[in-house]
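To the wet lab folks,

You asked to see what we're planning to order before we commit. Fair enough. Below is the target structure as tokens, and below that is the sequence we designed to fit it. If anything looks off to you, flag it before the synthesis order goes out.
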């Protein structure tokens, strides 16, 4: 498979996506083992946990799951347990699938969304993982219990969310000092409430979140705050699994969410407009035209979204994006549980966040992914991952974060990608953010299971309403 193209090794993990130089194709020193498993994301502590999972022989789906749950602790502004998202999976056999677990409106209405993240990552990991669920959630529980330092990435978004923090007692207690000022980067904080919730999920799977004491507390609190969510509705949330859509871009076959999801509708429309700009890489006009086509005029600066990606030695590639539909979602945290509720997709323009989650996996051959990446946080995130694809399609080698076009709004709109070309890979975080890309030495192991239905999973697919207004088409799940 792919060789590594990185410099430093620490404890079997290789660091990329930083200021260190690359080997530029030469062989690594003999004392450095080969690496071909990679992970990249917006928050460094979570990425390191994903790299450790890969180093243990975990699959890309395992790494993505571990990264997500770690980020639910270290980056809750966008990755809270109360949010939703979707993941794109591509295997060496050539099969590609989308696992969709986007937030949904309650049938009874109200300001809060039905959460999908816990159910979604359970489905992803049980279909494509190799390590135990318990192993993957343990680091997140440990971070929440023992404490973690506020990262530069989190501090940046906290600074932009002070009004939200000050209106919620739980968030204020965690992130503000006694004078109401933001705790600076490096301050070690913990969250024992969320630690107990993750412990329940770790032990009991999704039922530990959606049902039982924790589910009841979440639903009861939401109802007290004016939500129409019912216990049955919350407890019966089910993800959807569906084949990925593919589009041609030069010599690349690009896999992405299908058009019956809002994110797929926007991305497919945008990508099909890019044929004429491959030489110039001028994607601005295509993006503006796509926004006009869907009648999107104004969006909040921070849509509360983040993305991450991983590949392993079996050739499995996973790209995921999650969102709270606004910074810290609705800004209301369930007491004694620690779960901040996502904003209802229908409640404001921030509900369009899921329409711009753009996971992509592009290949030139059936078995190897040339690009595994995700753009999140708005149309700039989608445009930035499109820029990466265009450069790869015209034959450019992407080996440094600066080879990607920063969104200019990072970390509010971000792009993260793993680029593989001519036998080498590089994990590239958004050059305008404080994310991280890492590679891990990974021993050969049996390929991860492909396409197996996990217990309780659904093959449900959704069909868009062709008569719906363009903006509404983007919010359809």
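Sequence we intend to order:
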């Amino acid at each position: 498979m792919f060789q590594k193209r990185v410099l430093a090794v620490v404890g079997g993990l290789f660091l990329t996506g930083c200021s260190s130089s690359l080997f530029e194709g030469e062989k690594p020193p003999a004392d450095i083992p080969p690496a071909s498993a990679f992970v990249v994301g917006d928050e460094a502590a979570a990425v390191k946990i994903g790299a450790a999972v890969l180093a243990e022989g975990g699959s890309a789906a395992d790494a993505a799951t571990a990264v997500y749950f770690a980020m639910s602790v270290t980056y809750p502004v966008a990755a809270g347990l109360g949010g939703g998202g979707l993941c794109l999976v591509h295997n060496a056999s050539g099969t590609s699938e989308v696992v969709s677990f986007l937030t949904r409106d309650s049938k009874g209405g109200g300001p809060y969304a039905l959460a999908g993240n816990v159910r979604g990552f359970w489905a992803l990991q049980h279909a494509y993982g190799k390590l135990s669920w318990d192993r993957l959630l343990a680091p997140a529980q440990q971070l929440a219990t023992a404490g973690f330092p506020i990262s530069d990435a989190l501090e940046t978004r906290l600074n932009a969310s002070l009004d939200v923090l000050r209106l919620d007692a739980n968030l204020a207690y965690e992130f503000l000092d006694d004078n109401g000022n933001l705790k600076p980067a490096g301050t070690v904080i913990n969250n024992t409430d969320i630690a107990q919730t993750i412990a329940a999920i770790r032990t009991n799977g999704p039922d530990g979140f959606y049902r039982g004491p924790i589910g009841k507390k979440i639903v009861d609190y939401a109802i007290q705050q004016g939500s129409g969510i019912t216990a049955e509705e919350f407890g019966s949330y089910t993800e959807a699994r569906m084949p990925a859509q593919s589009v041609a871009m030069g010599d690349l076959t690009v896999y992405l969410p299908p058009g019956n999801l809002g994110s797929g509708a926007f991305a497919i429309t945008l990508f099909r407009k890019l044929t004429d700009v491959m030489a110039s890489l001028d994607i601005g006009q295509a993006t503006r035209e796509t926004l006009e086509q869907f009648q999107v005029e104004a969006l909040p600066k921070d849509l509360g979204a983040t993305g991450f990606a991983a590949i392993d030695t079996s050739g499995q590639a996973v790209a995921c994006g999650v969102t709270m539909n606004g910074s810290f979602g609705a800004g209301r945290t369930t007491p004694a549980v620690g779960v901040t509720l996502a904003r209802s997709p229908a409640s404001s323009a921030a509900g369009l966040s899921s329409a711009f989650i753009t996971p992509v996996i592009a290949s030139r051959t059936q078995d190897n992914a040339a690009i595994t990446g995700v753009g999140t946080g708005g149309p700039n995130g989608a445009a930035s991952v499109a820029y990466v694809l265009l450069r790869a399609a015209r034959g450019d080698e992407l080996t440094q974060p600066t080879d990607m076009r920063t969104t200019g709004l990072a970390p509010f709109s971000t792009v993260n990608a793993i680029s593989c070309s001519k036998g080498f890979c590089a994990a590239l975080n958004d050059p305008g953010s404080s994310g991280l890309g890492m590679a891990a030495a990974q021993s050969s192991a049996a390929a991860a299971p492909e396409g197996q239905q996990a217990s309780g999973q659904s093959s449900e697919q959704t069909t868009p309403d062709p008569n719906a207004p363009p903006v509404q088409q983007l919010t359809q799940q």
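Structural context that might help your review: The chain has 16 helices and 20 strands. Residues 1-33, 445-464 have pLDDT under 50 and may be disordered.

Thanks,
Computational group
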